[in-house]
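Milestone 3.1: sequence recovery, worked example.
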């Protein structure tokens, strides 16, 4: 039995991840769409074994790539599931979805919030405020869009949403080198995004302290974290996350993850903000 769901998977040089992702969705979704950013490895060769619905589109940022997919793919199903190549649909989540769709309990719902279960160096990162963190990755066609943000974007769903109990497993990078390379790129996106928000350029960020879990998380980031002093806030955030939110309980893998993702990455973002603010002056002095 297949559910009335199309999976959209973004890829770029994901030969190490794509097969496991496709294996996790092939038996319950009606269609699988691959939106590739011109991979140069075996990603598409592997994907062709699972689907012929493969499209290529130049990558600018995740928000634009997601919205291009939603607006241009020939999707025929009522529901859309948005994934990255390093995501795996857990068996428990599949069972939960089958139960919901077979019982008709989704008639008044336009979207579902699903938490990611981060797997880093083979360990579930359970503490440090990193679980559960919900994302609206499953919604009715034409009822969801992605925020126009350079980094850390979320889907915005029109109408009623519900949380699901089970998770998408997020396998974070195949190596520390890949982790650092990706986060270096994302740090540039995030620095640009923060500068845009601070200069009052239009964004589509949903912030509401009384809203759903995504909106509350966004509220505390935009209204609290981003108001703290640059270069100081990464120290404060790491202390909050590793000690107050019990990140130390994630063991040595957790120490590596929370330090890199909760301090080093945030500090790199701030360093790039400082660099970007100085660039016009440096150019003017040449």
């Amino acid at each position: 039995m297949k559910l009335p769901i199309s999976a959209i998977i973004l890829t770029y040089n994901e030969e190490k991840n794509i097969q496991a992702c496709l294996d996790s969705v092939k038996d319950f979704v009606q269609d699988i769409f691959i939106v590739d950013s011109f991979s140069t490895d075996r990603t598409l060769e592997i994907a062709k074994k699972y689907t012929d619905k493969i499209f290529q589109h130049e990558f600018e940022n995740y928000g634009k790539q997601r919205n291009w997919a939603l607006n241009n793919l020939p999707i025929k199903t009522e529901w859309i599931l948005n994934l990255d190549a390093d995501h795996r649909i857990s068996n428990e989540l599949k069972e939960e979805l089958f139960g919901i769709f077979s019982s008709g309990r989704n008639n008044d719902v336009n979207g579902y919030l699903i938490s990611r279960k981060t797997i880093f160096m083979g360990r579930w990162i359970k503490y440090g405020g990193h679980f559960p963190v919900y994302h609206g990755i499953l919604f009715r066609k034409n009822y969801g869009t992605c925020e126009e943000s350079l980094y850390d974007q979320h889907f915005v769903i029109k109408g009623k949403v519900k949380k699901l109990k089970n998770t998408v497993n997020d396998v974070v990078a195949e190596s520390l080198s890949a982790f650092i390379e990706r986060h270096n790129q994302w740090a540039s996106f995030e620095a640009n995004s923060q500068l845009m928000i601070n200069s009052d350029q239009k964004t589509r960020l949903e912030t509401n302290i009384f809203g759903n879990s995504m909106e509350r998380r966004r509220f505390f980031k935009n209204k609290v974290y981003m108001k703290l002093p640059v270069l100081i806030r990464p120290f404060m955030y790491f202390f909050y996350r590793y000690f107050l939110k019990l990140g130390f309980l994630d063991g040595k893998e957790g120490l590596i993850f929370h330090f890199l993702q909760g301090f080093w990455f945030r500090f790199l973002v701030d360093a790039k903000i400082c660099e970007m603010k100085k660039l016009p002056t440096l150019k003017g002095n040449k």
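Confidence is low (pLDDT under 50) at residues 281-286. Residues 251-284 form the longest helix (34 residues).
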